[in-house]
Specification:
Layout: H1 20-35, E1 40-45, E2 51-55, H2 58-66, E3 70-73, H3 78-90, E4 97-102, E5 107-112, H4 118-131, E6 135-139, E7 145-146, E8 154-156, E9 159-161, E10 163-168, E11 173-177, E12 187-189, E13 197-205, E14 211-216, E15 227-231, E16 234-237, E17 240-241, E18 249-254, E19 258-273, E20 276-284, E21 296-299, E22 302-310, E23 320-324, H5 325-332, E24 335-336, H6 353-360, E25 372-374, H7 383-387, H8 409-412, H9 416-430
Parallel strand pairs: 2-3, 5-6, 17-22
Antiparallel strand pairs: 1-2, 4-5, 4-19, 7-22, 8-9, 10-11, 10-24, 11-14, 12-13, 13-14, 15-16, 16-25, 18-19, 18-21, 19-20, 20-23, 21-22, 22-23
């Protein structure tokens, strides 16, 4: 996400639009809420784009069908699934493990990465066996780790990370990024020399959660703060924030691997990082690599999460976890700064209601990142040119976004060979 100037007035905050995936997810959530946790066991979006609700009896199944959703009768209720995760949480903590509720199989899935010893895995298996046969144990390659060695949009003495989204409290603007990026008081810069200060971390929540706020040095994010860069001079207009549904197709923008997509595989996941336990995360199969840390996750222009951590890469795949945006906004008392196309020079017009509805009528598997817009500076000057012009480096150069390094690559990575060396170097900490 990139901004180019200091805003003169409070950014426009609009109502959250409803996409098809959000509507389907809400239908399922409403049914789960109405029927109760003792008669249901979660909801997800089917391959046809329709909501599916897991229920424990035929009467509940009939109510689900009557509401226009599909029902799947399962053997274990949400109460039982939650009880299982509570037991896992109370067991001795094992770094390198994670668990989540797989609604589609009616199981709790426990994962152990390559760092978990045979004895620790055996102990975890014993705990799982004591819970019941609906707890599934899986070993996974790689290492569950927070992506501290992320992209280069924001840098401090403690490391490098990237920002997710711009947010505001109505008086001052902030960068919402991952909590593991740095403690309160960390100073962030837009350059490796530490000359162009962006701001300071004023709030951090990690572990437990994984989000933090970087307050802009001059208090404002500027025009274009609601656009996420996705490559080739294009951006996605962010129009609201929401919660994803299991089975929903989502997108992640990152500086190393670019724009990638996949599906939400679980919500309310728990990960035991070496640094501590983080709960309430979104689990996905969207790949990520070193340099993608802290990047934004979204779908159809709706902000969903910021990269927390995971395992694997974009060659072999893996699991990636995201901090839900809505949880962070609620806890921090912030609002998302959304795209205001009418005020952004060079941006595409906002999609009409008809266009939005047409996009929302497709299944999640065919979803798009969101309405696109050219990423440009004032008077139509390409932003890349403005960023590499030293006259524009200063308070007016406010940098956010999961993949800004793609724009300033000429300053950090001089050639494709250097880029590959950069990836190899940080792979050691990626796992």
């Amino acid at each position: 996400m990139v901004t180019r100037a200091v805003a003169s007035e409070t950014p426009l905050i609009t109502a959250v639009p409803h996409t098809y995936a959000m509507e389907a997810g809400q239908t399922g959530a409403d049914l789960v809420s109405r029927l109760g946790s003792s008669r249901t066991a979660g909801t997800w979006i089917g391959t046809d784009g329709k909501p599916v609700v897991a229920v424990t009896d035929e009467q509940a199944a009939a109510e689900v069908r009557q509401a226009g959703a599909r029902a799947k009768v399962v053997g274990h209720s949400m109460d039982e699934l939650k009880s299982a995760t509570k037991t896992l949480r109370s067991a001795p903590r094992v770094a390198g493990t994670a668990w989540s509720m797989d609604y589609r199989t009616n199981q709790v899935v426990v994962q152990g990465d390559s760092t978990v010893s045979a004895s620790d895995w055996s102990a975890m298996t014993e705990v799982a066996n004591g819970i019941g046969g609906f707890v599934r144990m899986e070993r996974t390659d790689g290492t569950f780790t927070p992506r501290l060695n992320g992209a280069q949009p924001i840098l401090s003495t403690g490391g490098r990370c990237s920002a997710g989204f711009n947010v505001t409290n109505g008086q001052s603007d902030f960068i919402l990024t991952a909590g593991h990026c740095g403690p309160t008081g960390s100073t962030w810069f837009a350059d490796t020399g530490g000359n162009n200060q962006l701001g300071k971390t004023v709030t951090q929540s990690f572990p437990g959660n994984d989000f933090s706020l970087v307050q802009y040095a001059n208090g404002k994010a500027g025009d274009g703060a609601g656009v996420v860069f996705i490559g080739n001079g294009k951006g996605v207009q962010i129009t609201g924030a929401g919660d994803p549904s299991i089975g929903q197709r989502v997108f992640r923008s990152g500086s190393t691997s670019g724009l990638r997509d996949g599906q939400v595989t679980a919500v309310n996941a728990t990960v035991n990082y070496p640094e501590g336990t983080v709960t309430g995360l979104i689990e996905t199969n969207v790949c990520a690599e070193p340099g993608d840390s802290g990047g934004p996750m979204f779908s159809e222009g709706i902000a969903l999460g910021i990269t927390s951590g995971g395992s694997g890469d974009c060659t072999q795949g893996g699991t990636t976890f995201f901090q839900p945006v809505t949880k962070a906004l609620t806890d921090l008392g912030m609002q998302l700064i959304v795209s205001n196309p009418a005020a952004a020079g060079g941006a595409s017009p906002a999609p009409s209601a008809t266009a939005t509805q047409a996009q929302g009528s497709i299944a999640p598997g065919a979803a798009s990142p969101g309405s696109s817009a050219a990423v440009e500076g004032a008077q139509g000057t390409p932003l890349l040119s403005r960023l590499t012009d030293t006259r524009n480096v200063g308070p007016g150069l406010l940098v956010v976004g999961g993949s800004l390094i793609a724009l300033v690559a000429t300053r950090y990575i001089r050639s494709e060979q250097d880029r590959k060396a950069y990836q190899r170097y940080y792979s050691a900490t990626w796992g």
